[in-house]
Amino acid sequence: MSDATLDDRGRLTLPKEIRERYGDRYHVVDIHDGIKLIPVAGDPLDALRDEFADVEKSAEELREGARETALDEAGR
Predict the structure, then answer these.
(1) Could you tell me one molecular function GO term of this UniProt entry (predicted)?
(2) Of the residues 31, 39, 54, 56, which has the maximum number of CB atoms within 10 A of its CB?
Protein backbone atom coordinates (compact mmCIF):
# COMPACT_ATOMS: atom_id res chain seq x y z
CA MET A 1 0.00 0.00 0.00
CA SER A 2 1.17 3.51 -0.70
CA ASP A 3 -0.12 7.05 -0.27
CA ALA A 4 -1.06 9.47 -3.03
CA THR A 5 -1.99 13.15 -2.78
CA LEU A 6 -4.22 15.31 -4.94
CA ASP A 7 -2.55 18.32 -6.52
CA ASP A 8 -4.07 21.81 -6.57
CA ARG A 9 -6.10 20.89 -9.68
CA GLY A 10 -7.58 17.75 -8.09
CA ARG A 11 -5.38 15.30 -9.99
CA LEU A 12 -4.17 12.12 -8.38
CA THR A 13 -0.88 10.58 -9.44
CA LEU A 14 -0.63 6.86 -8.84
CA PRO A 15 2.73 5.29 -8.03
CA LYS A 16 4.64 3.90 -11.00
CA GLU A 17 4.36 0.31 -9.74
CA ILE A 18 0.56 0.57 -9.70
CA ARG A 19 0.41 2.10 -13.19
CA GLU A 20 2.72 -0.60 -14.57
CA ARG A 21 0.63 -3.36 -13.01
CA TYR A 22 -2.88 -2.06 -13.75
CA GLY A 23 -2.54 0.47 -16.55
CA ASP A 24 -3.49 4.11 -16.98
CA ARG A 25 -7.32 4.04 -17.05
CA TYR A 26 -9.67 3.44 -14.12
CA HIS A 27 -13.33 3.62 -13.18
CA VAL A 28 -13.76 5.55 -9.93
CA VAL A 29 -16.47 3.94 -7.79
CA ASP A 30 -17.96 5.67 -4.77
CA ILE A 31 -18.52 3.06 -2.02
CA HIS A 32 -19.97 3.49 1.46
CA ASP A 33 -16.64 4.11 3.20
CA GLY A 34 -14.40 5.50 0.45
CA ILE A 35 -13.63 5.09 -3.23
CA LYS A 36 -12.39 2.20 -5.31
CA LEU A 37 -10.33 2.39 -8.50
CA ILE A 38 -11.14 -0.35 -10.99
CA PRO A 39 -8.71 -0.77 -13.89
CA VAL A 40 -10.22 -0.40 -17.36
CA ALA A 41 -8.82 -2.79 -19.94
CA GLY A 42 -7.32 -1.28 -23.09
CA ASP A 43 -9.49 -3.59 -25.17
CA PRO A 44 -12.60 -4.67 -23.23
CA LEU A 45 -13.37 -7.50 -25.68
CA ASP A 46 -9.92 -9.01 -25.18
CA ALA A 47 -10.41 -8.72 -21.42
CA LEU A 48 -13.72 -10.60 -21.68
CA ARG A 49 -12.19 -13.29 -23.87
CA ASP A 50 -9.39 -13.77 -21.35
CA GLU A 51 -11.80 -13.83 -18.42
CA PHE A 52 -14.01 -16.51 -19.98
CA ALA A 53 -11.35 -18.51 -21.82
CA ASP A 54 -11.93 -21.58 -19.62
CA VAL A 55 -15.74 -21.61 -20.05
CA GLU A 56 -16.67 -24.68 -22.04
CA LYS A 57 -20.38 -23.96 -22.60
CA SER A 58 -21.75 -21.96 -25.51
CA ALA A 59 -23.51 -18.65 -24.97
CA GLU A 60 -26.82 -20.37 -25.70
CA GLU A 61 -26.14 -23.05 -23.07
CA LEU A 62 -25.24 -20.38 -20.51
CA ARG A 63 -28.41 -18.41 -21.36
CA GLU A 64 -30.60 -21.51 -21.03
CA GLY A 65 -29.00 -22.40 -17.69
CA ALA A 66 -29.61 -18.89 -16.38
CA ARG A 67 -33.22 -19.04 -17.60
CA GLU A 68 -33.80 -22.38 -15.84
CA THR A 69 -32.26 -21.07 -12.63
CA ALA A 70 -34.42 -17.93 -12.73
CA LEU A 71 -37.58 -19.98 -13.29
CA ASP A 72 -36.67 -22.32 -10.42
CA GLU A 73 -36.00 -19.39 -8.07
CA ALA A 74 -39.31 -17.79 -9.10
CA GLY A 75 -41.11 -20.95 -8.00
CA ARG A 76 -41.87 -22.39 -11.40
Answers:
(1) DNA binding
(2) 39
